[in-house]
Amino acid sequence: MHAYDPPSAELASRLAAAGTPRAYPKRTVVFHEGDESGQVFVILSGRLKVFLTNGDGREIVLDILGPGQFFGEMALDGGPRSASVMTLEPSRLSLVRREEVRRFFATDPDAAFELLTTVIRRARNLTRVAGGLALLDVYGRLARTLLDLATPGPDGPVIRDRVTHQDLATQVGATREMVSRILSDMRDSGAISMTGDGIILARDLSDPRPA
Asked: What is the pTM assigned to this prediction?
């Protein structure tokens, strides 16, 4: 659900070059919420999820990140991690230490401004996600998530990335069974269609009534 613009490929490449590359297997927790660390991570390959877990073990996914994006910048102030991050597939990350980030910004003020702009957009997106979780019903949250995941296609917005019903359930804070039922209703009403290319969004998902 990338609702903010990632940094430019050139900026991500230069920031990654300042760090140390490391490989992570699928379903590896890069760090947990509350961990102490001052590193920024740039994604070289793979996909990762940013999530929170409550005391009952219920998981809410805040974002899905891919190559050219970064995460972990909130800990540059010396505070604990505000969320957990796990790989969804084998991934390669560049680990950039706080001192390396500081030197990078000192030599390239324009890059620092671009990175700051990306962080602001991310904060706005997280505010929107939090508001959606509080105010929208499950249908509305699922519709918003599908729209966030979609990219333009010849027959309408399409979700080409692999996404399971369980993935969607964790993102919207619902059970897999409820998500499966809503997706079935969406398909029956013509709101979405399943093809070999993925999930095509055929009409405005904000309206749950049949077309």
From this structure: 0.58
